[in-house]
Specification:
425 residues, alpha+beta, Jelly Rolls, four-stranded antiparallel sheet, elongated
């Protein structure tokens, strides 16, 4: 049975090698990559719920389940952060972007500027590192009443965030709306490269913070969170637009596409060769290997501990196989974009497949020697680590690539995982 555990561990992880080969030699479309990743997330959520959580609860009770999930989530999150900080960030496009933000050369801005920008709507949901990066690039300015901040028909060079004061928006000599503290303006012209669509005039003394065109593009490339926030702002404004509904929707789709294109890692690296060199120099192959293995230890452990249980042969194993493919595809593609040699990428993922078999064998022997309470806690810890991995890497990456439409793929994956669990159980 130990051999069976080894084979099952490698089988579940074999899709990592397949995904890596696709990521290295092909360039799949963003929507396809996002859909596969979301589908795999759904199947793994179902497998975690019905093949780990429910079975641990039936055999060991709620306490080992709660304790194990908490331990697994905390361990995975902290170990993953530690590995990223010590050179393993390159294994994920999202972690590479985060690393760029946290280690960019600009000096950190003073807390006072962050405080002044804290109520700006599009910044409120951003991670602290991204807020600091944006705040370090803005230029403060003040405006007097009746001062024209931007004029309809003129080229747009700046994006503005209002800290204090009010301004009126005028189009075709008619007042459209009043802008208040926390709101933004000027982003549409920068995104579309078209002239200003309206005139903005200060109504009161104003305190504003502006980003020039170059810094605005830099921020968008590195902050998918800001891209999503701007997309929501655009949608809300279009609901009050004087344009027709069809024209407004077409504009929204076009702007959203431009926003999502801005945050691609390959665009950032292509336009900034120094960033490429910096990423490769600061990454550590051993840390990348350990970080990648960390993502797969929980799954392989559960496979090994249940190698003798026939009901897991198709349900959990299939869920792991499906979810591993998009994870490797995304990671291998990101590593290739950052300049990692193809042979090194493939060697990494094929090595992970073999190591997953070894870990599954360890799980098999643990299941034979440990108490029921310990087995339940270890399985639950694996489940917590799996959920932590999904919530911190796969699902955010899928959303960044495909937008809200990936929810349908996630639902489909969950239903397939549920169906397999019910049939095999």
């Amino acid at each position: 049975m130990a051999l069976s555990a080894f084979v099952q561990g490698m089988l579940g992880a074999s899709s990592l090698a397949l995904g890596a080969m696709v990521g290295v030699f092909l360039t799949p479309k963003r929507v396809l990559s996002a859909s596969i990743m979301a589908f795999g997330s759904g199947t793994l959520i179902a497998a975690t719920a019905f093949e780990i959580a429910s079975k641990v609860y039936e055999k060991a009770g709620f306490l080992p389940l709660m304790l194990g999930f908490a331990i697994g989530g905390v361990l995975f999150t902290n170990l993953s952060q530690y590995i990223d900080q010590h050179g393993g960030f390159l294994r994920k496009p999202a972690s590479s972007r985060r690393y760029l933000f946290e280690h960019q050369p600009e000096a950190k801005t003073t807390p006072n500027i962050l405080q002044r920008l804290s109520h700006v709507e599009v910044l409120q949901q951003l991670p602290e590192a991204e807020k600091e990066a944006i705040a370090s690039l803005v230029t403060p300015m003040h405006a007097k009443p009746k001062q024209v901040l931007c004029k309809e028909g003129e080229p747009g060079d700046y994006f503005y965030m209002i800290a204090q004061g009010e301004a009126e928006v005028i189009k075709d000599s008619k007042q459209i709306t009043i802008l208040r503290p926390g709101e933004i303006f000027g982003e549409m012209s920068l995104l579309t490269k078209e002239p200003r669509s309206a005139t903005v005039i200060a109504c009161t003394p104003m305190e504003l913070y502006q980003l020039n065109e170059e810094n605005f593009a830099q921020v968008l490339m590195r902050s998918p969170h800001l891209a999503r926030a701007l997309s929501q702002t655009l949608a809300r404004r279009l609901r009050h637009s004087v344009n027709s509904h069809v024209a407004a929707q077409n504009n929204l789709d076009r702007w959203r596409q431009r926003l999502m294109e801005q945050v691609e890692l390959d665009r950032l690296l292509t336009e900034n060769p120094q960033t490429l060199t910096s990423l490769v120099e600061r990454s550590t192959p051993v840390a990348i290997l350990v970080g990648t293995l960390l993502d797969n230890i929980p799954e392989a452990t559960v496979i090994g501990m249940n190698a003798s249980a026939q009901q897991l042969a198709w349900s959990f194993l299939l869920a792991v196989f499906i979810s591993n493919f998009p994870e490797a595809l995304s990671s291998a593609s990101g590593m290739k974009q950052a300049g990692t040699p193809k042979l090194q990428i493939l060697a990494l993922w094929f090595g992970i497949v073999i190591l997953s078999g070894i870990i599954a064998t360890f799980g098999y022997y643990l299941q034979d020697t440990a108490s029921l309470l310990l087995i339940g806690t270890v399985q639950a810890a694996s489940g917590g680590a799996i959920l932590a991995m999904l919530s911190s890497t796969m699902m955010p990456e899928a959303y960044e690539l495909g937008g809200s439409s990936v929810s349908y793929s996630t639902i489909a994956g969950f239903l397939l995982g549920f169906m397999i669990a019910m049939v095999s159980g």
